[in-house]
Design brief:
It contains 13 helices and nine strands. It is of the alpha/beta class. The strands form two sheets. It has a seven-stranded mixed β-sheet with strand order 5-4-3-6-7-9-8. Strands 1-2 form a two-stranded antiparallel sheet. Helix 3 packs across helix 4. The longest helix has 17 residues.
């Protein structure tokens, strides 16, 4: 009788090596928290074993039980057969080491804004535009999806109450689970609605926005991994910036005098700078350059 992979692959090292080979043969596409076959394999295997996902080395020689081996092989084959992003298959994604539940109702969290908030890069001590984080009392997270940025904002700005808005009620159901996981129900308020429409009269010290910003032609050409995510979480119109323009038009009416807007827009910098006479402050992260801008309330009022 022929041996199955579970008969021959005994250690975590064996499973990771097998996964990398299978992923390379299948020509998978990455970008949902990992960028290589090795990183994808390590994430799936560690998360599949409920081990810390930030360090593979200590576990490589661990001999796995047969049920563990069969489960991991099942994840490997499911990743190839379905082409779904790995976080959907394991039900979890991470930003700056903070875990969030995910499924097909939400885009897989991977915003540059999470890194900027959690590393303090936005504060003036980190040479960013935000003053003392303890002085931020009200935050708005637009297009919240899984609620990840709203939760990270509550962590980064400990005195802030956070409103988190999304048009998708399905996404807000996932966000509700994440709020419970992080004990944030009293700090973060989920609101169903279209951008600023449900927020009449409310003003904020900080508006965070990671809206859909992918151009239609790019969405139409998505590989299967990206097509697995909700289209509305990506599609930003013909040039990708329709929703960004709406945010720019209305954000000033919802900022306190000393407040500001931080917005992730992908690769649309040249379009915005040609279209708007605004003093965009472009902020870089470890993996991005010129894909996030800051504008103060005063900047927007002058438009």
């Amino acid at each position: 009788m022929a041996l199955s992979p579970a008969d021959e692959l005994l250690t975590l090292r064996d499973l990771v090596r097998y996964a990398v080979t299978r992923f390379a043969q299948a020509r998978l596409v990455y970008g949902h928290g990992t960028t290589t076959a090795l990183d994808e394999a390590a994430f799936m295997m560690l998360e599949g074993l409920s081990l810390p996902v930030d360090e593979l080395g200590p576990w490589l020689e661990a001999r796995l039980t047969r049920p563990e081996r069969e489960r991991l092989i099942g994840l490997i084959e499911a990743r190839i057969a379905t082409r779904k992003p790995a976080p959907y298959l394991v039900g979890r994604a991470y930003i700056q080491g903070v875990p969030f539940r995910v499924d097909e109702r939400v885009i897989v969290p991977r915003s540059y804004l999470g890194e900027m908030m959690m590393t303090g890069a936005l504060t003036q001590d980190g040479a960013g535009p935000v003053p003392d984080p303890f002085e931020i009392s009200r935050v708005l997270d637009l297009c919240t999806g899984s609620g990840c940025l709203a939760i990270l904002a509550a962590m980064a700005y400990p005195n802030a109450a956070v409103d988190a808005v999304d048009l998708s009620r399905d996404a807000l159901e996932v966000a509700k689970l994440n709020l419970a996981d992080h004990d944030m129900e009293d700090r973060v308020h989920l609101i169903a609605g279209d951008l600023f429409k449900p927020l009449a009269g409310r003003r904020y010290d900080l508006i965070i926005a990671n809206p859909p910003y992918v151009a239609k032609a790019e969405v139409d050409a998505f590989p299967a991994e990206y097509r697995a995510e909700p289209v509305m979480a990506h599609l930003g119109g013909a040039d990708g910036l329709d929703i960004v323009r709406r945010i720019l038009a209305e954000a000033g009416d919802h900022l306190t005098p000393e407040g500001g807007l931080i917005c992730e827009i992908g690769t649309g910098r040249d379009i915005l700078e040609a279209e708007y006479d605004l003093p965009f402050l472009w902020l870089d992260s470890a993996e991005s350059e010129g894909e996030v801008f800051w504008l103060s309330a005063a900047d927007l009022a002058a438009e």
